[in-house]
Amino acid sequence: MDLYSGYINKLIEELAALPGIGNKSAQRLAFYLINMPSDRVRHLTKVIMDAKENVKHCKICCTMTDQEICPICANKARNHKQIMVVENSRDQAAYEKTGKYDGVYHVLNGSISPLLGIGPGDINLKELMVRLEGDVDEVIIATNSSLEGETTAMYISKLIKPTGIKVTRIASGVPVGGDLENIDEVTLLRALDGRTEL
Ligand code: ZN
């Protein structure tokens, strides 16, 4: 027997499909939303749609931004000769929060996973190679230490080697399979400082 109406069940189902939200949280959120004044719900819906429709990818580093060029790429005070390659904008945010990295980033928007059918052509590698035609001293590979992250790191390093540009990999102080965004600043900085040349 269904406890709730079809509409509520549908809402709970949709919310539960979001990452990090289990069935219980989905129920709590669903009831909260339903009890919210209509104009607040309308506002929330609009904020989500606005974000969805206006956020694009930086023309240089591919991170999510609402400008053509993101604030980090546009910042002349950063070291544009040092590029840190990360899997997604969340990992970039984790490093950015430490406030200790003054280079720039390249966001792959994924990692190579033969198992999931994600190949090198499915992540932002072409864009990275175009950037390397410019003046670059070092590429720091900061993909996760999961199987996919390591596969991606190896692939990128092989790709860059012939260009003669220095390629480094962050130290494996980062727990295996750990998402960079969940790791504390000290560990992130230690991983960055302890990076080794590939
Ligand atoms: Zn950018």
Please render the helix and strand layout as text.
Blueprint: H1 6-16, H2 23-35, H3 38-54, E1 56-57, E2 64-65, H4 71-74, E3 79-86, H5 89-98, E4 103-107, H6 125-131, E5 138-141, H7 147-160, E6 166-169, H8 185-193, E7 196-197
Parallel strand pairs: 3-4, 3-5, 5-6
Antiparallel strand pairs: 1-2, 6-7
Helix pairs in contact: 1-2, 5-8
The structure holds zinc ion.
Quick recap of the structure?
With 198 residues, the chain is α/β, with parallel strands linked by helices. 43% of the residues lie in helices and 14% in strands.
Number of strands: 7
The whole-number mean of residue pLDDT values reads 90
Overall structural class, as computed from helix and strand content, comes to: alpha/beta
- What is the spatial order of strands in the main beta sheet? 4-3-5-6-7
Low-pLDDT runs of 5+ residues are none
Number of domains: 2
Q: What form results from the Cα inertia axes?
A: elongated
Which architecture of the largest domain would the CATH scheme give at its second level?
A: 3-Layer(aba) Sandwich
What fraction of residues sit in β-strands?
5-15%
What's the CATH class label of the largest domain?
Alpha Beta
Q: CATH topology of the largest domain, what is it called?
A: Dna Topoisomerase Vi A Subunit, Chain: A, domain 2
Largest sheet, in brief, is:
5 strands, mixed
Count of helical stretches: 8
